[in-house]
Design brief:
Largest interface: A-B, 48 and 49 residues
Number of strands of chain A: 9
Helix content of chain A: 40-55%
Number of domains of chain A: 3
Number of helices of chain A: 15
Structural class of chain A: alpha/beta
Structural class of chain B: alpha/beta
CATH superfamily of the largest domain in chain B: P-loop containing nucleotide triphosphate hydrolases
Order of helices and strands of chain B: HHEHEHEHHEHEHEEEHEHHHHHH
Radius of gyration of chain A: 26 Å
CATH architecture of the largest domain in chain A: 3-Layer(aba) Sandwich
Oligomer: heterodimer
Strand content of chain A: 5-15%
Strand content of chain B: 5-15%
Distance between the termini of chain A: 61 Å
Radius of gyration of chain B: 24 Å
CATH topology of the largest domain in chain B: Rossmann fold
């Protein structure tokens, strides 16, 4: 096999493990390998990493696959050397990877290309009939939820755009206009701050105690995704799963089917702390910035130690523009946020609100818009 | 290892930058392939410094575009010098110049203010080093615009026409990962992630940058930082912090770490109050002991 084929096989193995590697990345990798010392393991590794643009969160997967690649190359080389043939760089003759990688990735793809091996989003969401909700209910819900999503996430950008109304004077455009009138400024052009596209990160609890709310929450998540194109969705119970790749607006019906199909016999508790810590570790840096609103939907009933939960919440709060905690149990007048997990998280929550029915969300919209 | 890559690493070291092979490889590939290099990593791991060192190595000017929220084309690319244009226009009026030729005069290169991106592509005598710093702070819209500039290195100015790069600049972009860089831009670049330095590398950095630090002190500092970074911190100290701290300790005439001094100077390393609160005196003392013990064995 030549270099191109090797890179193609390796990139496919990466993609099958959920690591993005496009055709143009492959082209870069080939061009870069030509420039590097193919006998030097570390150099080949760095080169591939640089040219394929491997993010830190994918570095482990990459190293694992690269080890496979190199080992198979070594074995092939030893075999050939024994036969007395020409000595080649390991990359020139690995043969074992395609088979090994295929077997490995097959196992993975059966479970879904999830970020956490062993849990598919389907398993996270218990079997729930959608038929309790009529079409009209859902349509109404979606309209309301898209308004909610906008209120949650919209803000004014610092970028200035031309306006016909009030705003700061824009000397550039004012003077540009004045050229037509011999340098006489007749009317000032103005600029104002642009409305920024919503940016949301939603973390949704799908554990047993949240069971009866899951249907509603799904509708909520999907509307959010519709209203704000750049919404990241996560589900968690005992582990964290990134749902975003599965939830695309064009495939909402299919997504609902997949999610509601569920997995029989599955039931789980929650480890909010561990899950949020996993989120902080893997995604916080890239997904949450000063303009991001983080929405956590959970009842805060944590089985684990509350230390990690508080630490994770603090980390999220320190980066996000706003942290919103929607708690379906708040609708129950008997509920007090004394659940240990909830109490630990509360100091780092900006908006704590009920989310058990449409009415509660309707009330939330003006509160958030005013904030 | 390719001799060229080794040479880059050594040359960088002579400039006081301790580069591991991956960094030298990335720079080599980026210059050879003529592709921009996107460098990510935590604050203070030495991303920006790479561009400065590269500029010194190649003896070329470094042109820096610091990104921020709201950065727009007129700050990044070009702007007309309106006050001067205005004056010229008035003069033209008095001289009785017809409007068309007046316009021709004021929209010429003479009245064009070159901002960093334009400066970088109009260098006369060779390629410049263009550092686009903290691209993650700019808006997505700006990122899309940048993509266009980086793909053909030409700029269209409606009043003037197209300006083509005479020498394609070496482009380095840095990101602190406060948001994810778009896939399109990422694809256009080569990519380097810089981790916090290993113990050995950090010792070498301290020795290179803080000549007053003894071998023992350097080792203890590096060991202490290694265990400090292993803790869950909101803001892990970078190399910049290490150097500050080493300098502080040298100023205080310390030849070894002791719990009291470390506590007093911890502000050089931890810049978030929560991280300070999370480190009670007893644990700090353990960390210091660990650093001293390990360093003396090593």
């Amino acid at each position: 096999m030549d270099l191109v084929a090797h890179v193609a096989v390796f990139s496919r193995a990466l993609r099958e493990r959920g690591v993005r590697a496009s055709l143009s990345d492959e082209a870069d990798a080939v061009a870069a390998l030509v420039l590097s010392d193919l006998m030097d393991r570390n150099e080949v590794r760095s080169t591939l990493k640089i040219a394929l643009k491997i993010r830190r969160r994918d570095a482990e997967t990459f190293d694992e696959l690269f080890a496979l690649l190199w080992a198979s190359g070594d074995a092939a080389r030893r075999g050939r050397e024994a036969k007395g043939s020409r000595r080649d760089g390991p990359l020139k003759n690995f043969g074992g990877l395609p088979g090994a990688a295929a077997a490995e990735t097959e196992r993975q793809s059966l479970e879904g290309p999830s970020d956490v091996v062993g849990y598919s989003p389907e398993a996270m969401l218990r079997k729930k009939p959608f038929d309790e909700c009529t079409e009209r209910d859902l349509a109404q819900m979606e309209r309301l939820l898209s308004r909610l999503a906008l209120a949650l996430a919209t803000r004014k950008s610092r970028r200035l755009v031309p306006t016909r109304g009030r705003g700061r004077v824009d000397p550039r455009r004012s003077l540009r206009r004045a050229v037509a009138t011999d340098g006489e400024i007749l009317r000032l052009a103005r600029r104002t701050r642009a409305i920024e596209e919503p940016r949301l990160v939603v973390l949704c609890d799908t554990s047993g105690s949240m069971d009866r709310h899951v249907r509603f929450l799904l509708a909520f998540l999907l509307s959010l995704k519709k209203a704000a194109r750049r919404t990241e969705l996560f589900a968690f119970n005992t582990s964290l799963v990134r749902l975003t790749p599965w939830v695309t607006p064009s495939k909402i019906a299919a997504t609902l089917d997949r999610m509601s199909a569920g997995v029989p016999g599955w039931s789980g508790g929650t480890q909010i702390g561990a899950c949020l810590a996993a989120f902080v570790e893997r995604y916080l840096d890239e997904m949450v910035g000063a303009s991001t609103v983080v929405v956590i939907v959970s009842d805060g009933l944590d089985r684990g130690d509350t230390g990690p939960l508080a630490a994770a919440m603090r980390a999220i709060h320190s980066r996000a523009r706003r942290v919103v905690w929607l708690n379906p149990l708040l609708g129950d007048p008997r509920y007090e946020p004394t659940a240990r997990g909830m109490a630990a998280a509360l100091p780092y929550v900006d908006v704590f609100a009920p989310a058990h029915n449409l009415e509660s969300l309707e009330k939330l919209v003006p509160r958030l818009s005013a904030a | 290892m390719r001799p060229e890559i080794r040479a880059i690493g050594e040359a960088m070291e002579r400039q006081g930058y301790i580069a591991e092979p991956a960094i030298a490889t990335a720079l080599y590939l980026s210059t050879e392939m003529g592709k921009p290099l996107l460098i990510e990593g935590d604050a203070g791991v030495g991303k920006t410094e790479i561009a400065k060192v590269l500029a010194r190595l190649l003896g070329r000017p470094l042109i820096r575009l610091q990104c921020y929220e709201g950065l727009d084309v007129h700050t990044a690319l070009y702007e007309w010098d309106y006050p001067r244009q205005m004056l010229r226009l008035r003069m033209a009026g008095e001289q009785g110049l017809d409007p068309e030729s007046a316009e021709h005069v004021i929209f010429s290169r003479k009245y064009l203010l070159e901002r960093p991106l334009l400066q970088a592509i109009t260098q006369k005598d060779g390629p410049a080093i263009l550092l686009i710093d903290e691209i993650d702070r700019a808006d997505d819209g700006f990122e899309a615009f940048l993509l266009e500039v980086l793909s053909d290195f030409q700029v269209s100015i409606p009043e003037l026409g197209t300006i083509q790069a005479e020498h394609r600049p070496h482009v380095l972009l840095t990101s602190n990962r406060t948001r994810e860089i778009g896939d399109a831009l990422r694809r256009r670049c080569l990519y380097l992630f810089i981790e916090h330095p290993s113990f050995e590398k950090e010792v070498r950095i301290i020795r290179a940058r803080v000549p007053g630090a003894s071998e023992r002190l350097s080792a203890e500092i590096a060991r202490f930082l290694e265990s400090l970074r292993r803790r869950r911190l909101l803001k892990a100290p970078g190399v910049a912090e290490t150097i500050d701290w080493a300098q502080a300790l040298v100023r205080l005439h310390r030849d070894a770490l002791d719990a009291e001094t470390v506590e007093q100077t911890l502000g050089c390393l931890l810049k978030d109050r929560n991280d300070m609160v999370d480190l009670p005196a007893a644990e700090l003392a353990t960390l210091v002991d660990g650093a001293r013990g390990a360093a003396s064995i090593g």
